[in-house]
Design goal:
CATH architecture of the largest domain: 2-Layer Sandwich
Strand content: 15-25%
Strand order of the largest sheet: 7-10-11-15-14-13-12
CATH superfamily of the largest domain: Bira Bifunctional Protein, Domain 2
Bound molecules: phenylalanine
CATH class of the largest domain: Alpha Beta
Structural class: alpha+beta
Radius of gyration: 44 Å
């Protein structure tokens, strides 16, 4: 037996020991008292008690503790007397023991609203009778003028003691409580659960053997190693439930992360990555895309033109001349072109690129199909800032060029791309001067109950491909990235992505499965 107990003792946690020792001194302490005395905190006391109870060392009883207290109204009544008591006193002071109803308020000094209550209780307590507007004291009333009722006893006792334990009330006070309870607003009963610990035989036996508390070591010191003390130390076990401070490790910005995710999707689909300058010539940004020089998108209100450098270099003459011809009369493509005089100077203008599509035409000019290329970059438009518009944002641009490429392949690539990112998109017919057929992808924003546009795409027109020297079909797309991030991170305002809102950035989970190496 002893051997067994020793084993149990050895396995006791320091909190269990502290609790047992405390109970050994006095079993009647409340958990709160023990928590203060042992400096353990109430949670630790209760969990140590639970653990001791599970080993049959102590028993934990749950008690309901019900206290009665005066309400604010109750305190006032306790100081001034019950309204019916005031009326009874007033009746006692009259010669014939009666008062006219209409004089009641004035004679008994109670407020109008208390009259009804006073009458009700006078009758219920049989202190007075009412007949034809006259209140008359009864025999019972007379004999009660000097005696406190049980309800009054309780009120006074509460005024003195603040609160009383319901289970300890004597019979008078119990009856008083019943009466007061009927009045609704004078007393209140507060129920509280408490626990009481009781040492069982095993607990008593353990205490008899005696418990020593060796404070746990939480740190190893140089000295302990030197003195060889470390061997006899009692090491505090790791508490994996302990509270810990929140830490906010560094992490990639959500926009950066989604860009990396997008890059991975295309790299995994076998696309090669390309890039281009932010400051671009109008030639690559517009002219190479068969966008006429008077096209609305080129207007100052849509495009940022740059003063310095004011002009960009144009590519080789052959390409420039072919492009000029195409704009003017369609060149060899069978198209009529736009039918205007193409102006070199307009093509030389420098712009902050309005899309990344110029990267694609430049890439086609410099590379031979078959090819698959994508690029991610920042683009600029003179947009009014709203929850879904910013004057600068990111696009992912891409092309696939090969003999048998067609519009179905385009839809296939886009579907695959969005699916890999976890989005469901719908396609709508669209128009771009440089593609035919053209389509736009949209996603439904539940918050705004609206479809928002994700980006455009289409098959490059022959007018685009011919001057570049490409004679196979090319599918092309240019998709916005910020809006994807909005949905991915559940933010209803695109501006959030550019605010240094620490709280939001901190709370975004780190791990969304994308590595940033
Ligand atoms: N450049 C278009 C998208 C697009 C790219 C390629 C082909 C067709 C459309 C935009 O910015 O919206």
């Amino acid at each position: 037996m002893n051997e067994n107990i020793n084993k149990i003792i050895n396995e006791l946690h320091i909190y269990e020991k502290k609790l047992l020792i405390s109970l050994g001194e006095n079993e009647n302490k409340s958990p709160d008292e023990i928590a203060i005395e042992t400096d353990m905190g109430i949670k630790s006391v209760m969990s140590a008690a639970g653990s001791l109870a599970s080993k049959d060392i102590i028993q934990v009883n749950t008690l309901l503790d019900s206290k009665v207290v005066l309400t604010d109204v109750g305190v006032e009544i306790a100081n001034n007397g019950l309204p019916e008591r005031k009326v009874l006193s007033a009746l006692g002071e009259t010669n014939n023991g009666s008062i006219q109803m209409k004089d009641l308020a004035q004679k008994s000094k109670i407020s109008g609203s208390d009259i009804k209550i006073a009458i009700g209780w006078l009758v219920r307590k049989d202190w007075a009778k009412i007949n034809k507007g006259i209140i008359t004291i009864t025999e019972n009333g007379k004999s009660n003028t000097e005696i406190q009722g049980n309800d009054e006893k309780l009120i006074n006792s509460l005024l003195e003691n603040n609160q009383l334990d319901i289970f300890n009330l004597d019979d008078d006070l119990k009856e008083g409580l019943d009466l007061l309870n009927d009045r609704k607003n004078l007393v209140e009963i507060i129920d509280k659960k408490t626990h009481k610990f009781h040492l069982l035989d095993l607990g008593i036996a353990i205490l008899k053997i005696g418990l020593t508390i060796q404070e746990d070591a939480t740190q190893l010191t140089h000295q302990q190693l030197k003195d060889n003390n470390w061997k006899s130390l009692n090491y505090r076990p790791y508490d994996i439930n302990a509270e810990f401070p929140k830490i906010f490790p560094g992490k990639g910005h959500p926009l950066r992360r989604i860009i990396e995710e997008i890059r991975n999707v295309f790299l995994n689909l076998g696309f090669s990555e390309s890039n281009g300058p932010i400051l671009e010539s109008a030639f690559w940004n517009f002219d190479s895309l068969f966008q006429p020089q008077d096209h609305a998108a080129r207007e100052m209100q849509d495009t940022f033109y740059v003063k310095n450098p004011k002009e960009a270099y144009l590519p080789d003459n052959e390409l420039v001349n072919k492009t000029a011809l195409l704009h003017e009369n369609g060149g060899n493509t069978g198209s009529d072109g736009w039918g205007y005089k193409w102006d070199k100077d307009i093509a030389k203008q420098t712009v902050l690129r309005t899309h990344t599509t110029g990267i694609s035409t430049k890439f086609l000019h410099e590379n031979q199909p078959p090819l698959k290329m994508f690029s991610v970059g920042r683009v600029f438009r003179r947009e009014t800032i709203t929850y879904k518009h910013l004057p600068e944002f990111h696009q992912v641009e891409g092309i696939v060029a090969d003999k048998n490429i067609n519009y179905q392949n385009l839809l296939g690539v886009l579907k695959e791309f969005y699916k890999k990112l976890g989005f469901e998109v719908r396609f709508r017919p669209a128009y771009f001067p440089y593609t035919y057929l053209s389509t736009e992808c949209e996603v439904y924003l539940e918050d705004k109950e609206a479809w928002i546009e994700f980006g455009g795409s289409g098959m490059f027109r022959p007018e685009v491909l011919e001057p570049l020297g490409i004679n196979v079909p090319v599918l092309a797309f240019g998709l916005g990235i910020e809006r994807l991030a909005m949905i991915r991170y559940d933010i209803s305002d695109i501006r959030m992505l550019y605010k240094s809102d620490i709280k939001w950035l901190r709370e975004i989970p780190i791990d969304n499965g994308i590595s940033l190496e």
